[in-house]
Amino acid sequence: MKAMRRFKKGDIVLVLFIGIIAIIPLLWTYLGDRGKQRENLTAVVIRDGKRVKEIDLNKVQESQYIRFEEGIKTTILAEKGQIKFLEADCPDQICVKTGLLTKPADRAVCLPGKTIVLIEEDEGNN
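Below the sequence we write its predicted structure tokens.
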């Protein structure tokens, strides 16, 4: 029977180096947003290519519902620091499944309803 080949010192160093390089982007992403309090988060609702509503998510005190009854019916729920598609009559429900939007550049799109919800951050006042 053949003896099992052992790793050489250089092989172990190479595997560790590649592992560290692979983990760095994940840590960068995860730790970059942690503990950073977002101010001036604005949710923007776009329907048929027009900005129809802007909501300062930091100032929301009570749940706000935005309903669209014409075409594909949709309901959007805005709460303090977050917004989401609550309901939509579209067949695939991708917009609803997207879930909560809480960070700048988060977005959810209902293509059949021609509705986009996105979050912007005013960088000037941070």
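The helical segments are 9-33, 94-97.
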